[in-house]
Every structure is written in C-alpha cells, then in structure tokens.
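Input (structure):
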C-alpha cells in the first residue's frame, strides 16, 4: 500500500472515539487493560477526558451518577471478562436506579468464545449482561459503530433511563475502513430523549382526584430530580399548596426548609393522607410498597384505601403495588407543565389549613425533638454529635455535593442534613447499596467542578476506598468524611467462642483512614471532637484539596442495619 492510500483509512479505535465525540461525550470513566488501553490513549489524544480508576465498579458507578446529573449517558469503559463483571454490578445498579449510562467493554474473539475453546478472558459478555441492563448490543463490524452508538445512547436516555451494555470485540478496534465513509457512518442522535406528553384526559382525571382530596400529599422521588424541571415542580407545589415529602435523593429539589416541606412529618403524612401524588418515585420497599401500617393499613398486606396519582415515564410502573387512580404516563417536565396550565386556567383550591396546619405542627414537634438529640454532646462523639457539626458547616455551603452511604451514617445523615439545592444529595439509592461512595464523589467533582463531601460509614468506605488515589491523581475537590466506629454497624461485638478472630462485624480498632489519603499526597485529619470535625470539614471544602477526615465515633454507637433492622431474618426457633 502506498502512503496516500493509507492516509485515507481509519480504524475501529478512531471511529468509536468519533462516534462518542459527535454525540457530545466529554468524559470516559474507565480502567485500562487488554484490549482497551490504546483506545483510552487515543481518546485522550483526541481531546476526550479519560478518568482512570482502580476498580471497574467505581468507574461504572461514576459514569452512572454522571448520567443522573447531566441527563446524558455516562460512559464507562472496562476490559474483558473480570473487568466486565466487576463493572456489571454497578451497571445493574444504574439500571435499577434509572440512571442513563453506557458501559463499553472489550471482549475476546467470538469464534473462540462461542466454541468455548478457552480464549484469554473468555466470557459470553453480551449474554451475561442482558438480564441486568436495559439493553445490550455487540458491534461486529466497523461500519456499524456509528449506528450502534446511536442505538446505545437512545436506549440509555429515552423513556425510563437505564444502563446499556456495548460489547466491543478486540478485533473490531483494529478493523479499518475508508475514512470518508467512516465519517458518513457516524450518527449524531436527534432528540435522544423525546418528550412524552400525557393525554389531556389523563391530566383532567389527575386534577379531579387532587381537587377532591381532603388531605393530599406530594411525594417527590429521584425521577423528579432527574427530570431537571425544578422551577415548574416548585411552582406546581406552591400553586396547589399541597404539603410535600421527598425521597432521599429528591431532597433539595425544593429547599428542605420550605414552608410546605413535610419531610420531618413523613410518618404522620403517609398515614393520614387520603391522596398521594407520586412524582418520579416508585412504590417499592423504600415506600413500604404503598400499603400496610406505614400507610395507615391494618397489616402489611392491607391497601389503605388512599387515592394515588402517579407521574412516571414508564406506564408499566402504574399498579405495580397498589391500584393507581390517576396514572400520568409522561415525562415529568411535560406533565407538570400541562398540569400547571390547567391550574392557571381553572384555579386550584388549596387544601384545608386543618390538614396543612396539623402537618406543620407535627413537623415542628419532630424537629424540636431532633434538636435535643443534636445538642446533646457525647464524648467520644456519637453519630448525632458528629452530624450536628457537619450540618452546621454544610448549611453555609448549599452548593456542595453530598455523597452518602453506610447504615447508620446514611439513615441519620438523611434526616439531619438539610439540602437546599436540587440533585446535590447522591446516595445508596434503590438497592441501598454500599460501594457507590468514591465513584459518585469523583464523577460529581469531575462533572460539576464543585466541592464534594463524601460522608461514609467506615464499612461503606472500604468498598471503594482505594479510589482516594484517583481523587489525589486528578486533584479533585473531594472531602471524604469517615464515621469510624470500628466496625459494620458498630465495633463492640465479640467472638462468642473467645477465639482470636474478631466478630464478623468488627474491624481493626483505631484504624487511621486519614493516613490512606496522606499516602497519595492529600490531607489527612483525625477528628476527635465536633470542633475538630467542623474545622477540618470547612478547610477541606474551601481549600479544594483532596482531604480525608477520620471521625472517631463511639464504637458502641450504632444500630444493627440502621433503620432497616427489621429486614434481617429472624428464626422462630432461636430462643435466647
Ligand atoms: P426514589 O428512589 O427517589 O423513590 P425511584 O428511583 O423509585 O425514586 O423512582 C424514579 C422513577 O422516576 C422511576 O419509576 C422512573 O421511571 C421515573 N422517571 C425517571 N425519569 C423520569 C422523567 N424524566 N419523567 C418521568 N418519570 C421519570
């Protein structure tokens, strides 16, 4: 071949990169190795940002939360079989949480994999991925890269968002084609997440149900936060005058100190309401499936005879657990704006002050009760002492992202730390999963350039702790705060046999997590008192330097499984 002929050719590596760039992808979260190392190098050379991680689950978690924050699919990249499987857990988590993302994994030779002849890292990745994702595709020919990427993007963000798997055999990357034809094969997706406008009769039906309610309440979920219809959602809540609750990641969609916030009166509101409007929240385990005592029912199977209005982009979500009286199948932005138009035309009678007043009263009483726990100091610190210090600092910085995982650390922080801006709270989500911490924190910092605080239980941190090196390598403004009580749930269990092994829930006592951050050039601090914690946290946020605060918590503090102790199986046979 002469030089002129060579110059006209391009390869799979570059077509893939061009397809990403044509669709405004700026960042890839990944971990290199055979067969994607050169792909990552070339992506960087072509102006994409490649954020390299230490474990694939963290890279894929990062891509997932990038998708949630931006409404564009987050992109993750992994090597074959083991790297793919490491990433799959986070891809499944993204799908369960309705976060749009694409995990691109290198894979081995089809011919060898299909005959199970034992290739390097042999695994039928496409079929392994399928049960856990919204969609899974493989690209076999270089000519198909453009359309395959378009398909993956559309699958990730249209309708109910989710995780997409894209299988890239090693051979594909080395395939060549004429450069001009390759350019023509690239697809820029038009309107990747088309509006889904609910039918006018569905809007009328929903307003009818709401108007006839005596004690209505709105429940905002992370779907509502994802929709980025913040101003309209706020206008809808305020124009209807209906008290609202927020699922944890929807906190801050309206500021938690909004006069209509019923968050601190959640139990009361769910029990007493006669009508609940769900906006981007599923009636799953986090909402006790919409029935039983939480909802004022007699037993766990009892539908509590409430009216339900539900906005969800997935029509299939309706009637999943209890009958929905007024389903609004549509995207939240379009649906809320249609509801607002009707309200502007026909007016809306705000709920009776007997109802809104009783909620406000309950809320204020609960807040006062909690204030007592927050001011009661303990030495060594307990969760509430440490959280009260954190709350005061974070109140002054509503722009900070708060990543949160753990058992007690998650459950208590959720109710103590108020959020004032949308999409600033990122947490364990639908599965209540541990391990999202550093991946979410890194992507929040990369995507926003804003400071991030990752509030972690010591156990939760362990799942992604090695990424403190990644935080230091990219010099990200992340402050990791570890509530260290020496174990899972608490650190005071003992081995009943008296043997040398510690109890299953106990870690090395007095661990110096702060030194882990120092090992990579970041700032490590130990905080024994609320004052030390406040000071270190404020410094971490303002300095923007990678910081880790090892917060010493009483090892006797903590409840088994936090607020979900009841989910642990109990045997009727075991009598103590
Ligand atoms: P939470 O855990 O906060 O209760 P869920 O993850 O259970 O929230 O529910 C989110 C819901 O929002 C999902 O059922 C999803 O289909 C829906 N959803 C996501 N994005 C949109 C959107 N743009 N418009 C309407 N519904 C959406």
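Output (sequence):
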């Amino acid at each position: 071949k002469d030089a002129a002929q060579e110059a006209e050719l391009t390869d799979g590596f570059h077509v893939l990169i061009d397809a990403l760039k044509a669709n405004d992808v700026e960042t890839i979260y990944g971990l290199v190795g055979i067969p994607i190392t050169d792909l990552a190098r070339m992506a960087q050379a072509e102006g994409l940002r490649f954020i390299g991680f230490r474990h694939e689950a963290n890279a894929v978690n990062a891509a997932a939360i990038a998708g949630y924050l931006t409404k564009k699919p987050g992109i993750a990249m992994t090597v074959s079989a083991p790297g793919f499987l490491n990433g799959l857990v986070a891809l499944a988590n993204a799908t369960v949480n309705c976060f749009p993302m694409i995990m691109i994994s290198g894979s081995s030779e089809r011919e060898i994999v299909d005959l199970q002849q034992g290739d390097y890292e042999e695994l039928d990745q496409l079929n392994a991925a399928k049960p856990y994702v919204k969609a899974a595709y493989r690209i076999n020919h270089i000519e198909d890269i453009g359309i395959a990427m378009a398909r993956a993007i559309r699958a990730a963000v249209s309708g109910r968002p989710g995780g997409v798997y894209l299988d890239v055999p090693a051979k594909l990357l080395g395939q060549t084609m004429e450069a001009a034809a390759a350019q023509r094969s690239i697809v820029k997706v038009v309107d990747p997440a088309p509006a889904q406008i609910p039918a006018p009769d569905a809007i009328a039906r929903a307003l009818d149900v709401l108007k006839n309610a005596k004690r209505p309440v709105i429940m905002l979920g992370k779907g509502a936060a994802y929709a980025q219809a913040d101003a309209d959602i706020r206008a809808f809540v305020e124009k209807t005058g209906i008290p609202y609750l927020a699922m944890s990641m929807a906190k801050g969609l309206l500021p938690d100190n909004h006069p209509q916030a019923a968050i601190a009166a959640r139990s009361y509101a769910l029990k007493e309401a006669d009508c609940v409007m769900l906006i981007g929240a599923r009636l799953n385990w986090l909402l006790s499936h919409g029935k039983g005592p939480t909802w004022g029912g007699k037993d766990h199977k009892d539908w509590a005879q409430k009216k339900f209005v539900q906005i969800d982009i997935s029509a299939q979500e309706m009637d999943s657990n209890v009958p929905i009286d007024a389903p609004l199948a549509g995207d939240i932005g379009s649906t809320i704006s249609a509801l607002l138009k009707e309200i502007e035309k026909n007016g809306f009678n705000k709920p009776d002050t007997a109802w809104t007043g009783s909620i406000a009263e309950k809320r204020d009483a609960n807040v006062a009760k909690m204030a007592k726990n927050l001011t009661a100091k303990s030495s060594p610190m307990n969760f509430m002492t440490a959280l009260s210090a954190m709350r005061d600092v974070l109140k002054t910085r509503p722009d900070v992202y708060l990543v949160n995982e753990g058992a007690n650390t998650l459950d208590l922080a959720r109710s103590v730390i108020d959020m004032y801006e949308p999409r600033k709270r990122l947490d364990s989500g639908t599965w209540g999963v541990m391990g999202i911490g550093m991946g979410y924190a890194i992507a929040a910092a990369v995507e926003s350039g804003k400071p991030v605080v990752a509030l972690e239980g010591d156990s939760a941190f362990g799942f992604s702790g090695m990424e403190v090196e990644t935080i230091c390598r990219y010099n990200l403004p992340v402050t990791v705060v570890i509530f260290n009580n020496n174990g899972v749930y608490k650190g005071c269990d003992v081995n009943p046999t008296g043997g040398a092994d510690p109890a299953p829930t106990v870690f090395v006592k007095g661990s110096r997590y702060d030194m882990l951050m120092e090992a990579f050039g970041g700032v490590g601090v130990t905080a024994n008192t609320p004052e030390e914690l406040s000071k270190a946290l404020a410094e971490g946020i303002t300095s923007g330097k990678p910081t880790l605060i090892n917060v010493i918590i009483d090892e006797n503090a903590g409840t088994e499984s936090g607020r979900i102790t009841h989910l642990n199986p109990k045997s009727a046979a075991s009598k103590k």
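Notes: Residues 97-98, 160-161, 221-223, 226-227, 247, 249-250, 280-282, 284, 286, 311-314, 317, 331-332, 430 surround adenosine-5'-diphosphate (CB under 6 Å). The chain has a mean pLDDT of 96.
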